[in-house]
Amino acid sequence: MKALDRKLLRDLRRIWAQSLAIAMVLACGIMIMVAAQSTQRALTGTQAAYYDHHRFADIFAQATRAPNGLLAEIAEIDGVAQVDGRISFHAVLDIDGVGAPAMGRIVSMPPDPSVGLNVPLVRRGRLPDPDQLSQIALNEPFAEAHGLVPGSTLRAVLNGQLRELEVTGWVLSPEFIYTVAPGMMMPDDSRFGVIWLNEAGAAALKDMEGAFNDVALRLARGADTRAVIAELDHLLEPFGGVGAQPRTDQTSHAFLDSELQQLGALALFLPPIFLLVAGFLVNMVLTRLIAMERAQIGLMRALGYHRLEIGAHYMKLAGLIGVLGLAIGWGAGWWLGEGMLAIYGDFFRFPFLMRDPALGAVALSGALGLLAVFLGAFRAMNAAIRLAPAEAMSPPAPPRFSRGRADRLLVALRLRQSAMMILRSILRWPGRAAITVLGVSMSVGVLVSSYFVFDAIAVVQERVFDQGNRQQVTLALASAEPARAVEDAYALPGVVAAEGGYAVPVRLINGHRTHLTAMQAHGEGAQLARLIDDYTGPVTLPGAGLVLPERLARNLDVRPGSRVQVELLTPPREVLDLPVTRVIHQSFGGEVHISQAALFEAMRIAPQVNQIHLRVDPAQMAALQERIKTLPAIAGLSDWQDVRDQFDATLNESLLTMALIYTTIGLMIAVGVVYNAARIQLSERSHELATLRVLGFTRAEVGFVLVGEIMLLAVLAVPIGWLLGYQFAQGMVEAISTDVVQLPFAISRRTFAMASIAVLLAALASVLLVRRRLDRVDLASALKARD
Amino acid sequence: MTLAPDTTRPIFVAQDVTRVFRTGAVEVRALRGVTLSLQEGEMVVLLGASGSGKSTFMNILGGLDKPTEGQVFFRETELTRASDAELTRYRRDHVGFVFQFYNLVPSLTACENVALVTEIARNPLRPEAALELMGLGGRLDHFPAELSGGEQQRVAIARAIAKQPDVLLCDEPTGALDSKTGVQVLEALCRVNEELGTATVLITHNADIQRIAHRVVTLTDGRVSSDEPNTARVSPAEVSW
Fold first, then answer.
1. Do residues A591 and A725 share a domain?
2. End-of-domain residue from the set A207, A225, A246
3. Are both A319 and A389 inside the same structural domain?
4. Could you tell me which chain A residue has the CA closest to the CA of B173?
5. Are residues A504 and A587 in the same domain?
6. Best mutation site among A416, A691, A693, A786 for testing chain B: the one with the most B CBs within 10 Å?
7. Are B203 and B98 in contact (CB under 8 A)?
8. pLDDT digit of tens for each residue in chain B (241 aa)?
C-alpha cells in the first residue's frame, strides 16, 4: 500500500466519529430512496402480475337489468377482448355473535370461474358447488375477521328474506384488494365483505334469470378505452346503465394506486435534503482537516507530489465517507424496503410478492451520493492545493477580526467576554455558521413536515366526524322512497333524530372532460350529515347550483361561475345544465353536492330519499341493529362510531411508526451537523478554551463558549426550520394528494413546538458529547503547542 | 514603593515532588524529588536545559498538573490534595500565568482579553488600568493580530496581573521576542514584582536573565542542582540577549 493511502486510512480512523456522522446523514437519504423505490417497484410489479394472472378487467359497468344477449353485442365492440356479465348487489348480513349488521357486496360466479375475468383465488376450502345455491365463498379478510371458516354459516337479507348461507371457502380477488364499502373512507374488514355466490343462485334471488346487472371487460392491446366506454355506455343506457368506469376509477385499484403514488413521492421528496446536507458536512469537515494538514500538504508538495495527487488523496477520503454512507444506506434501504414490502404485502394481501431490487434507484442513489460528497470535498480541497509549498508550510495567518458595524453593535451591548467570543466567532466564520443553521433548520423542517400529518389528520377527524357526520348511523335504502320515509324512521328503536339524504349517480361533463361520480343532495338546515369545507367549516348550500371539491373541479377544469352538464344516470336520465357556485376542500370524497330543493326542482319530481341519517339513543343501539337486519327496505348501514374507531386505529398505528422513522432520520441531520460543527469548533479552539481553563474558568464556563455558540445557531435555525417545514409540508400535500385522498394543509403550534424541542434536544446532546472532550484536553500541553 | 521579599513566609512549599509521565510502555521521570520553598514577594528564576523538568514543576505550582508523589503547599493549602474544582478556584483567585506564545483569545481585543479575567476575579484592577501599567493605554481596542509580539506579551501580562494575583508564573515569557521587546517585557514583570509585591516565578533558557532575580534555582534531570540567592541584581536593561 502506498504511504499516502496508509495516511488516508489513519486519517479516516482519526476522524471516524465525524465521518460516521456524515455517512449516516447520507445513508438516510439513500435509505429512503432505495426503500421507497424498491417497495414501490415490487408492489407495482406484484400488482401487475396479480392482475395479469387473474385477468383483472379493464372496464367495469353496472346497469339495472340487461339481457344476456347484450353481452355478445358488447363483445363485438372494437377493442374488447373478453366480456363477463354477472349479477352484483349489496345486502345486509347477520353473523352469529355479532350485534351490528355488516354489509356485503354479493357477486355472482359462473360455473367455471377460472375462464372468466377477475378470477378468484381460493385460499382456504373450496369454491361453492355450482348446483348448491346457498353455498358461498367469502373474501379472506372479512372471513378471517369473523372466523367464518368453511362449514360455518351466516345470514343475509336477500330479496326481502333472511336466508342462511354456507361458507365453503375463502378467496382473494384482484378486484377487491382494497375493500371499501360504498360511502366509506377506509376498508373495514369486519363491516364490509365480498360474497361470491353461484350465478344460478344469484339470478334466482334477484329475479335475474337470463340477465345481468354488472359487466366487466378486458381490452385487447392498444384498444381505445374512451371509445369502448362510450360504446358500452350507449349499449347499456336502455337497461339502466350508470356509466362505465375504466380501471383507473375502480375503487380497489384507485386506492392501491394512490398508495403506490404516495410511495413514489416519498422516494423523490426527502432524499435531496439529506444529500445536500451531507455535501455541506463533507465540505465543513474536509476544510478543517485540510487546514490542520496545511503544513503536511506543503511538505508533500516540497517532496515532489503533484497538486493533483494531493487533491486525489483528499477526494479519496471524501469518497470513502461517501462509500460508507452508501453501504449503510443501501443496507438500511434494503432492510427497510423488505419491512415495508412485508407490511404492504400483508395489508393488501397479495397472494405472492415479486421483489424488485430497484437497481435503478441503487445506481442513481449511488451516483447522487458520491456527487454530493465530491462536490463538498472539491471546494475544500481546491484552495489548499493551490498554495505554494513554502506558503503552505508556514503557519496560516491568524484569523483577523474586523470592527465592522455588527462588531460595534456587539461592543455597545456590553456583553461578557465569553459571549463576545461566541458572537465574534459567528461573525468571523459566517459560512460555517450558515451551514450549521441550514442543517439544523432542515432538521426542524423535516420534523415539521412529518408531524404536520398528525395535524392534517386531526383536521380530517374534526371535519369529517365531529362536524360533518354527526349521525351515528346512516341507512342506505334499497330504492328511493318518498321523503316521508324519514318520518317512518322514527318508529325504529332508539331513533332520536332522523334526516333524509339523496344520492344519485351522475356523469359530469365540461366540454371533452367527463367524470363519473355521485351527486349528494343535502336538505336545508341539515344538522346530522353536513357538508364541510376542511378550511372554513360548514358549507351553506346555494339555492341553485353545485358545490365541487377542489380535485374534482380541477379534473373538470371548472371554477365558480362555470357551468357543468350533469347527466343523471338513473331515471329520469336527464341532462341538467347547472352553475358551479363554490369549490371546497375535502380530504376524502369526490362527490358533487347540491341542495335537495335545487335538485328536485331541476328533476321536476317530488322530494325523495335513499339514505336516512339517524341519531340514536346509545342504550337502544343493539335493538336498532337487530331490527335493521330484518328490514328488506334497507340495503346497507354504516355505523359512524365504528368508522371513526377504524379510522383512528389504522392511522394511529401507521402514523406513529411513520413519525418515529421520520423523527429518527430528521434528527440524524441535526446530530450530524451539530456534532461535526462542534468537533471543528473544539479542534480550532482547543488552545483558546484551554487558556480559559488555565485562567481559572470552570469547566462549565468554558463549556458555555462551545455549547453556547452551537446552541445559539441552533436556536436561530428554528424559525428558519419552521419556514422550511411550512414549505416542505406544502410540497408534501401536493406530492401525496391523490384522487382518493387530499390532505388538508394545517400545521399546529404544537407541531412547530415539538419539532423544535426535539431538534434542540438532539443538538444539545450532540454538542454535550463533544464538550466532554474538553475535560480530556491536557491543559499544559495545549498551551505549549503553537496553533 | 519597592517591596522586598518576605523571606520568613513561604508562599510555596514543595516536598519531594516527583512526576512520572507514562505514554504506552515508555516512562519519563520529569521530576525526581524536588524539594523547594518560594517566599512571598520573591522573584525566582528557574533555569535548566530543555527536559530538565522546569515547566512540569511550574505547571504543578500553577495547579495545571499534579505530582505523582510528594506534596505541594500554597500557603496553608495542600494543592496535591485539591480537587479539580478547587484547583480551578485556586487558579482563578491566586495565580497569573504568562506563556511563551501569549495565549491571547484572537477574537477579543486587548482590553477584552484582560476583561476576560477581571470579570471572574474577586478584586481585580480595571482592565484599562492593567493595560496602562503595561504601557498599552493606546492599544485597548486592538485585536491580538493587530499587535506586535512584545505588545501581545504585555497584554498577556496585563491579563495575568489584572486579578492582582498572589503569584505570577511565567514560562519563557521572552522566548519568542527580540531583545528590545524582551527587555520591555522583563521590565514589566519586575515592575509588577516590585510595585505589587507579587511573587514571580520565571522560567527561561537565557541564563543572563537570572541577574534580575532575587534567587536562582537550577533544575537538572528533574532535580534541584543549585539554589542560590542573587546578591547583585541588575535592571532588565542590563541583561544581555
1. no
2. A246
3. yes
4. A784
5. yes
6. A691
7. no
8. 455 666 678 999 999 999 998 877 888 899 999 999 999 999 999 999 888 999 899 999 999 889 999 999 999 999 999 998 899 899 999 999 998 888 898 889 999 999 999 988 888 999 999 999 888 999 999 999 899 988 999 999 999 989 889 999 999 888 888 888 889 889 989 988 998 889 999 998 888 899 999 999 999 999 999 999 998 889 998 888 7
Q: Is A477 within the bounds of a domain?
A: no
Indicate if A776 and A679 belong to the same structural domain. Answer: yes
Task: Tell me, yes or no, if A421 comes closer than 8 A to chain B by beta carbon.
Answer: yes
Domain finish residue from A246, A276, A306: A246
- For residue A783, give the nearest of B93, B99, B143 by CB distance: B99
Q: Which tens digit of pLDDT belongs to each residue from A169-193?
A: 999 999 999 888 876 777 888 889 9
Smallest CA-to-CA distance from A247 within A54, A57, A50 is with: A57
Mention the CATH class of domain B41-64+91-238.
alpha beta
Residue of A nearest to B88 (CA): A696
Across the interface, do A400 and B88 touch by the CB < 8 Å criterion?
no
- A419 — contact with chain B (CB < 8 Å)? no
Residue A120 has a CB neighbour count (10 Å cut-off) of 24
Q: How far is B89 from chain A (nearest CA, A)?
A: 6
Per the structure, the count of domains in chain A is 4
For A102, the domain range is: 59-246
Q: Which residue of B has its CA nearest to A421?
A: B107
How many residues does the structure list for chain B? 241
Indicate whether A232 and A272 sit together in one domain: no
Give ipTM to 2 decimals: 0.85
Q: List chain B residues with CB under 8 Å of A696.
A: 88-93, 95, 117, 120-121, 163
Q: Which residues contact A87 (CB under 8 A, 6 or more apart)?
A: A106, A107, A108, A199, A202, A203, A206, A208, A211, A212, A213, A214
Same domain, A81 and A116: yes
Cα angle A702, A707, A711; round to 5: 150
CA angle A387, A391, A397 (to 5 degrees): 105
Cross-chain Cβ contact B107/A420 below 8 Å? yes
Task: State the CB neighbour count (10 A cutoff) for residue A527.
Answer: 12
**What ranges do the domains of chain B cover?**
41-64+91-238
